[in-house]
């Protein structure tokens, strides 16, 4: 990273092997899709690469020239904004008309392509095809060897796949002008139509600790770095809690909120799926009693309201924050209902709620399962080489249970006490099984609830809890240390008797007479002190007297 810019300046012009550019692009393409897979972002149906569409780009540019909206200068081709704007009912800068002619934005939009562009007819004109300099990628064209401009590649690849008109185009808000406006005008110039895109969706900026993420501000964080600290679901939760077209704030406080919400959903799924698993194993025939009573009807009504709120929110410009609040509310209502106890709830209604919440979470990309309740579980082995066999799944749990049985048997044969047995039960609950993704949740009715979770998430939660406990302990220790230092300071201050406090060398420079308690009555010149001054000194004397008494008490303690 340090040498690359220098080497590029010194020797970049000597590069002639075009594979270097393809290999570099392939490296970052692979890295990008690894990040997207880690975030559970679906792969595109069609993957386009500019280097595979260069012939199409050349034909696209030639058509724009033929239609009278572009011109060639010294091997480069520029879009003629003046010729386009106002001709045949065309309009330039549809998205941000107020930015038309903004030299700073235009320069940012062209980047390095703006250098040495002295022969353009207008500052607003932009490169469709650029003559390559030594060391740059190059392809043949009617105007000489060169490379595509930045904006043209998007128009060509999208049009080749989707045709002369696109329904939805997305991108960051900072790309609205000039990039997206330039895409629009060059595409409409090529097709001679007036609406290449029906809808633009511009996402808000990502802000790190209150500022737009930027390498120049040194507040840049990669997806891999974020995933080292947070899970993909926690990061997705943060995005869901933010309106897609507004700035998103990535900071410790925002992530803490996302973690709490994701954890509440995880607990909800773990508890309900465990109850449902037990219910389906133990369900029996009807007991001839009605189970759908007022609490059940209230829960069904709450589910109906949640569905309506989520649907309305998503129809309203994909308002995911409102949808997530509705999901949180139905989860909270269901948790309250579950507190009635497993013998007093209708788990078929609970399953209906869980199925709905699970479906919405899948829609939001929080899980890649197609039918499982909750987050689901992956059937693939950790190395991704296929379905894990029964032995690899069951053997670790069987070993834990076998070790537990061995110790219980030994305790029974040796007459061990109950405390040792209870301690062993706590160990298998708190340590052994959680490492395998099994959680045993003790309930007041004497029956434990068995839940399945991701061992890595359990470990992360445990580490987070341990860190919080350690932080609280450290804070408590620092507070105690500070209090002790303060106490010691008071004791040290109280070491001096009140009778002597106004007779130190410093005080002798201020006062010349004292009363029977040692409180000054005259200043250095022999003048009587004012009543207010004497009153103030008497207060200091009384305060020192109390400190001195505590000091003497500490000596006798």
Description:
- The protein is of the alpha+beta class.
- Helix content is 54%, strand content 10%.
- It has helices at 3-11, 19-38, 54-66, 81-84, 103-110, 150-162, 176-191, 223-229, 232-240, 252-282, 294-315, 320-338, 347-363, 390-414, 418-432, 455-494, 505-508, 531-556, and strands at residues 70-73, 76-79, 126-131, 146-148, 166-172, 197-203, 206-208, 211-212, 248-250, 438-441, 449-452, 511-514, 520-523.
- The strands form five sheets. The protein has a four-stranded antiparallel sheet with strand order 1-2-3-4. A three-stranded mixed sheet has the order 8-7-9. Strands 5-6 form a two-stranded parallel ribbon.
- Strand 5 (166-172), helix 7 (176-191) and strand 6 form a beta-alpha-beta unit.
- The longest helix is centred in the last third of the chain and has 40 residues, at 455-494.
**Straight-line N-to-C gap:** 65 Å
Largest pleated sheet: 4 strands, antiparallel
Pairing-aware structural class of the strands and helices?
alpha+beta
The spatial strand order of the largest sheet comes to 1-2-3-4
Number of helices: 18
Mean of pLDDT: 87
What is the percentage of strand-forming residues?
5-15%
Low-confidence segments, given as residue ranges, are: 378-388
Count the E strands: 13
């Amino acid at each position: 990273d340090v040498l690359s810019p220098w080497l590029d300046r010194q020797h970049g012009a000597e590069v002639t092997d075009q594979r270097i550019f393809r290999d570099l692009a392939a490296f970052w393409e692979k890295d990008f899709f690894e990040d997207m897979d880690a975030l559970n972002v679906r792969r595109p149906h069609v993957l386009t690469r500019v280097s595979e569409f260069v012939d199409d780009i050349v034909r696209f540019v030639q058509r724009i020239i033929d239609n009278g909206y572009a011109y060639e200068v010294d091997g480069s081709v520029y879009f003629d904004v003046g010729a386009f704007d106002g001709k045949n009912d065309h309009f330039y800068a549809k998205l941000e008309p107020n930015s038309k002619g903004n030299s700073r934005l235009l320069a940012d939009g062209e980047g390095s392509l703006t250098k040495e562009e002295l022969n353009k007819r207008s500052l607003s004109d932009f490169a469709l095809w650029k003559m390559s300099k030594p060391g740059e990628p190059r392809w043949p064209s009617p105007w000489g060897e060169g490379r595509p401009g930045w904006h043209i590649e998007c128009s060509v690849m999208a049009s080749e796949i989707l045709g002369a008109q696109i329904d939805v185009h997305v991108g960051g808000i900072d790309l609205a002008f000039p990039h997206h406006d330039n895409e629009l005008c060059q595409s409409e110039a090529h097709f001679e139509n007036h609406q290449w895109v029906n809808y633009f969706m511009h996402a808000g900026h990502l802000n790190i600790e209150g500022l737009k993420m930027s390498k120049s501000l040194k507040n840049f964080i990669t997806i891999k770095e974020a995933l080292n600290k947070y899970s993909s679901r926690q990061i997705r939760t943060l995005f869901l809690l933010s309106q897609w077209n507004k700035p998103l704030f990535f900071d410790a406080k925002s992530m803490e909120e996302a973690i709490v919400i994701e954890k509440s959903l995880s607990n909800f799924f773990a508890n309900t799926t465990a109850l449902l698993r037990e219910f389906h194993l133990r369900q029996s025939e009807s007991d001839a009693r009605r189970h759908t009573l007022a609490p059940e009807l209230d829960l069904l009504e709450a589910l109906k309201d949640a569905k309506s709120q989520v649907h309305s929110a998503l129809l309203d410009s994909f308002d995911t924050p409102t949808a997530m609040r509705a999901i949180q509310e139905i989860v909270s209502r269901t948790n309250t209902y579950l507190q009635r106890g497993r013998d007093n709830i209708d788990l078929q209604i609970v399953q209906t709620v869980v199925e709905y919440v699970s479906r919405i979470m899948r829609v939001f990309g929080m899980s890649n399962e197609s039918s499982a309740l909750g987050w689901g579980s992956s059937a693939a082995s950790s190395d991704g080489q296929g379905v894990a066999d029964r032995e690899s799944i069951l053997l670790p749990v069987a070993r834990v249970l076998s070790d537990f049985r061995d110790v219980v048997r030994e305790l029974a044969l040796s007459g061990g006490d109950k405390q040792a047995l209870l301690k062993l039960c706590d160990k298998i609950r708190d340590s052994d099984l959680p490492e395998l993704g099994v959680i045993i949740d003790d309930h007041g009715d004497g029956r434990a609830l068995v839940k399945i979770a991701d061992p890595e998430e359990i470990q992360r939660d445990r580490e987070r809890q341990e860190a919080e406990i350690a932080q609280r302990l450290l804070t408590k220790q620092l507070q105690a240390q500070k209090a002790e230092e303060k106490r010691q300071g008071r004791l040290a201050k109280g070491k001096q008797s009140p009778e002597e406090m106004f007779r130190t060398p410093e005080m002798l420079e201020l006062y010349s007479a004292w009363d029977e308690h040692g409180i000054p009555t005259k200043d250095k010149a022999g003048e009587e002190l004012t009543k207010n001054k004497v009153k103030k000194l008497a207060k200091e004397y009384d305060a020192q007297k109390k400190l001195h008494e505590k000091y003497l008490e500490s000596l006798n303690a």
